[in-house]
Amino acid sequence: MSIEESARAFLENYKRVREQIQKVIVGHHDIVEGTLVSLFSGGHVLLEGVPGLGKTLLVRTLSQVLDLSFSRIQFTPDLMPADILGTNIVMETGDGRKHFEFQRGSIFGNIVLADEINRATPKTQSALLEAMQEQSVTASGKIRPLDKPFFVLATQNPIDQEGTYPLPEAQVDRFFFKLIVTYPEESELMEVLRRTTQENSPVLEKVLDGPKILAMQTLVKQIVVASHVMNYAVRLTMASHPGSPHATDLANRFLRFGSSPRGAQTLILASKVTALIEGRFNVSFDDIHKAALPALRHRLLINFEGEAEGMTSEKIIEEILVKTPTEPVKG
Prior knowledge:
The chain is α/β, with parallel strands linked by helices. It is about 45% helix and about 15% strand. It has 14 helices and 13 strands. The strands form five sheets. It has a five-stranded parallel beta sheet with strand order 3-6-9-1-10. Strands 2-11 form a two-stranded parallel sheet. A hairpin with a 2-residue loop joins strand 7 (about 135-140) and strand 8 (about 140-145).
């Protein structure tokens, strides 16, 4: 199959998945698109929003649309790393002999919902996040690879923070996108009521399986990015580094640390997916712009002055996008 045929199949599969999700999820178009962009890029998603906005429903719906194994982990303060990763248990054979057998934990799934991830202890959070990064689990001295595709969607609640453990900046950097789930519009809320207060429930179809998703992820990496577009993504990332020649005024004043190289990688991969779902083979500056907010917002660390001034990473990213020219300044 040629790359043109593969790209057409990619777009068709994307539309089919989105169509099935929209049978259940009302509105949240940016959230659905961001989730699918992350899936086809091979990254993970952090969903943040107050309770009742459909974060968990989105993940469950995605698991019903994709022919993949699904695992849900409810994070609580007493959750232990072994509950996620698995542990050795003593088994007895028919002749009375005993031996250790590895019991796989909840992390062994293609789609993993980490619900309210900020309610578990840092030790447990780290167990999940290390598995996300390494794509494997180390237990009892043995490395066990995770099934592919492997896609983690974590949710967290920005309110009711008593007894929670906020994710450290170094840990949250491992998420491809951070998506903020907001309240629905009036018309969307009306549609939610129509769908959820009647007996009829939508019938969802399985659209994609594991091999097809892996093929789509491979196609994404084959899309070529022009050097000047890639350089723009680099300069956007460096504009978040205080003291950098590319840094903006707000970044210099209100940031302790800027984005890691993972931020630049995310900009490029997400832009490739955006180009494909818009029927193009080339990445544009607009694709980079579209990816900037979900790719960078969780990778900027506000300093004490910024917190006192009520500064947010979103405001700094907006200034970076405005003040960073698409072409390098010749000097």
